[in-house]
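Problem: given the chain below (142 residues), write out its structure.
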Amino acid sequence: MPSETLPEVPVPGLKPRVRIAFIDRLLFFLGAIAGLCGVAGAAAAAHVTGSGSLDIAANFLLFHGPLLVAVALADHVGFGRAGPLRLGGILIAIGLIGFSGDLTVRALQGVSPLPMAAPTGGTLLMLGWLFLAIAALVPRRA
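Solution.
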């Protein structure tokens, strides 16, 4: 018996499948990895004495991981302008790597491999948040 393909029946309230851009998949992936690293960092901070920096790094990862996931999805649900959304997400991802990475290495090894990584990462995080705010205010193109 030959296999038949059934016609697609539209479901009210459900959007048809859309192609997800690579940058959105990357931001979603980085958000999930940030969450994973945040949980691991928080667990490690609970067992390391004098781990204030590690605890801060874990918190930043846990706060910004879900944000990156939301940024990846925001354009696909019609919220915000894609350009500033994606730029904000990229800045946040890079800033998070610099800021949390530097604090983690400093907490675990006692040295900072790149002396300006944390301040630069923090600045990039703030710029990323600014671009997300801009994305929310700038109307989408028709």
